[in-house]
TrEMBL record:
Membrane topology annotation: Multi-pass membrane protein
Keyword Cell division: no
GO MF terms, alphabetically ordered: electron transfer activity; oxidoreductase activity, acting on diphenols and related substances as donors, oxygen as acceptor
Domain of life: Bacteria
Transmembrane regions listed in the UniProt entry: 6-32, 52-78, 90-109, 121-137, 143-161, 182-205, 217-239
Full protein name: Cytochrome bd-type quinol oxidase subunit 2
PANTHER family reported for this sequence: CYTOCHROME BD2 SUBUNIT II
Family listed: Belongs to the cytochrome ubiquinol oxidase subunit 2 family.
Cross-referenced InterPro entries: Cyt-d_oxidase_su2 (IPR003317)
Compartment annotation: Cell membrane
Keywords: Cell membrane, Membrane, Transmembrane, Transmembrane helix
């Protein structure tokens, strides 16, 4: 695999994470409130929150596998590009990592103790962390464009798109709609990643490691990629099923 092939793989891995985890981010951001058909907002009951999290829960861990694989490619194949990105957007990257950790903690800890106060506190943490995670991810894409204005715009856009995507996946899982809205929001949420990859392509390729090292890492990719793809298939198979009682055991 040459540098161009690795760059395509990196973009594909990041896109996979955005589509999977974007649904979790969007569902988390709207966990406490739901928009009624008349356009007004209402507060979700605790049982409804469990249903929302269970609807997107199967996408959480497979999505993080995509992200970890993407980070491995970025650090291992394009170290100069990774260093430039961190130097330019270090605060944004730290915010992203911190909000990612808090978002996951909120999902896994909210139901681990009885009591409304414990759950409500973690639900608020989950909502805030989900919004910050989406915004910081979009801002990091803007950093890759080399523009503060792009960072602001893409941060806001990411928050909006993840909310739409999360709503679409939850509605599909609850059989309120068909799969078409999920396909549309998946394309929408992936578009900024693809656009950023195209814009950063020359700098990314120039920051690649030697051809010999690329060939060695290609062997690793042959072993790892089938596992990642298998997790993707399993994740969407789980989400395509009607939501059942078993899905809510962990939430």
């Amino acid at each position: 695999m040459n540098a161009a092939a690795w760059a395509v793989l990196l973009a594909a891995l990041v896109t996979g994470w955005v589509v999977l985890d974007g649904a979790v981010q969007g569902a988390g951001a709207t966990l406490l409130q739901e928009r009624d058909p008349d356009g007004s907002d209402r507060r979700r009951e605790p049982a409804e929150r469990r249903v929302v999290l269970a609807a997107v829960g199967p996408l959480l861990l497979p999505g993080e596998v995509w992200l970890i694989a993407a980070l491995g490619v970025l650090v291992g194949v394009f170290p100069h590009a990774e260093a430039d990105l961190l130097n330019a957007g270090y605060p944004v990257a730290i915010t992203l990592i911190a909000s990612w950790a808090l978002r996951d903690a909120g999902i896994w800890l909210r139901s681990r103790r009885p009591g409304h106060v414990w759950r409500d506190v973690w639900d608020v943490v989950l909502v805030v962390a989900s919004i910050v995670l989406a915004g910081s991810w979009g801002a990091l894409l803007g950093v890759a464009w080399g523009s503060g204005l792009a960072a602001l715009g893409l941060g806001i856009l990411a928050v909006v798109l993840t909310r739409l995507h999360g709503d679409a996946v939850v509605a599909w899982r609850l059989r309120r709609t068909g799969p078409l809205p999920v396909v549309v929001t998946s394309v929408m949420i992936a578009a900024p990643v693809v656009g950023t990859a195209i814009a950063a392509w020359p700098r990314l390729i120039e920051g690649g490691i030697s051809a010999q090292a690329l060939e060695t890492l290609g062997i690793v990719a042959i072993v790892v990629l089938p596992v990642v793809l298998a997790l993707q298939v399993v994740a969407w198979w789980l989400v395509s099923r009607p939501l059942g009682r078993r899905d809510m055991l962990f939430f």
